[in-house]
Amino acid sequence: MTRLSVNINKVALLRNARGGNLPNLVQVARDCEIFGAEGITVHPRPDQRHVRFDDIPALRAVVTTEFNIEGNPTPEFLDLVLANPPHQCTLVPDATDQLTSDHGWDTLRHADFLRDVTATLHQKGIRVSLFVDPDPRMVEGAKATGADRVELYTGPYTHDFSGDPARAMAPYTEAALAANALGIGLNAGHDLNMDNLRYFQEHCPGLLEVSIGHALLADALYYGLANTIRMYRRLLAGNP
Ligand code: PXP
């Protein structure tokens, strides 16, 4: 079974647009869980335009499924994560002013750094996942750092899916098989949506978790949050 973690960054973006507390991020996180989310993901970026650093303690206190904090492991980010230990921390090599994550780690070149950060997070009992492109060498490199999981960056798959799904998917299946053989867990995310999710999951053996934000919240404008989460859960359960 693949778990659905709902990324609530865009809810925070909407709240921040007016400076008040509408929508209430903590209430939305709670409600996502009530509606069937199996995890809550946040990505506090350095410019804090989405989820802010000071949102994290309250979210950590209410999330009862799986709390996943994503981000670039700067000293500030690591302090935040260590002070509010989530179930999982996904390390992402994004730049300070990046619009959205668009590539994975070079786990070979940054092996020493990633090994140190992973060990630090493990001391607090935090599961570590590394965001990587679908390249078996990067998966192998991730395994060597001691990380527990990789999150495959699905941007290129979602971009190419409508043209030739089989071709778009091939590198992901290969990376998934490499992860399974190495015994490292497998997550995926970025631009997954109701059209491309089912095919991805069917061809990605051992997929433990997807984190989905942008498309899911856009769908919620039409279907409502409760229906939308149920629809994504149904897709992941094999019921279109
Ligand atoms: N995984 C990572 C590492 C991300 O940075 C993001 C976007 O914040 C996602 C998954 C979710 O992507 P989307 O919002 O396109 O579903």
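^ pyridoxine-5'-phosphate complex. Residues 7, 9, 43, 70, 90, 92, 100-101, 131, 151, 189-192, 211-215 surround pyridoxine-5'-phosphate (CB under 6 Å). The mean pLDDT is 96.
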